[in-house]
Amino acid sequence: MNPSKNTPVQAAGCVLWRLSPPAGALRLCVIHRPKYDDWSWPKGKLKRGEDPLAGALREVTEETGYTAVPGAELSTITYMANGRPKVVRYWAAEATGGCFTPNREVDRLLWLTPVEARARLTQFRDRELLDELLTALHAA
């Protein structure tokens, strides 16, 4: 069955974070996708019937090589992509281990301070998620 141009593409992702030794400074994972030449959070399309949180964690692992523990759900972002609406659910997630290897979808990964990440992110909507993550971490 072919989805119509009005059927939203369902996707999910995470604002991936970790505390950097030795001082425990917050670092955020931003990825570069050569296909779009942009910097964003790890995210991707859900498989048919896939739970959104499971899909978000799968995409994080596929794109970054890191495993993560999910935290607070962040905003759901809706925008147009290739002429179709795209709905992306996001979670805060703490990186628990792994190692990045460049791949076809993601050729670079950086662990940045919040200020550096804000400057690097391509889309304004991704900067809003950064603010939500900081609020969620502060509340925890």
Structure keywords:
single chain; 140 residues; alpha+beta; Nucleoside Triphosphate Pyrophosphohydrolase; seven-stranded mixed sheet; 3 helices; 26% helix; globular
Descriptive overview:
The protein is an alpha+beta fold. The chain has a single domain, classed as Nucleoside Triphosphate Pyrophosphohydrolase. The chain is 26% helix and 45% strand. The protein is built from 3 helices and 7 strands. Strands 1, 2, 3, 4, 5, 6 and 7 form a 7-stranded mixed β-sheet that branches. Strand 2 and strand 3 (38-40) form a beta hairpin.
Sum this structure up briefly.
Helix content is 26%, strand content 45%. It has helices at 52-64, 114-120, 124-139; strands at 9-20, 25-33, 38-40, 43-45, 66-81, 84-98, 108-112.
Structural topology:
Blueprint lengths: L8 E12 L4 E9 L4 E3 L2 E3 L6 H13 L1 E16 L2 E15 L9 E5 L1 H7 L3 H16 L1
Parallel strand pairs: 1-6
Antiparallel strand pairs: 1-2, 1-4, 2-3, 2-7, 5-6
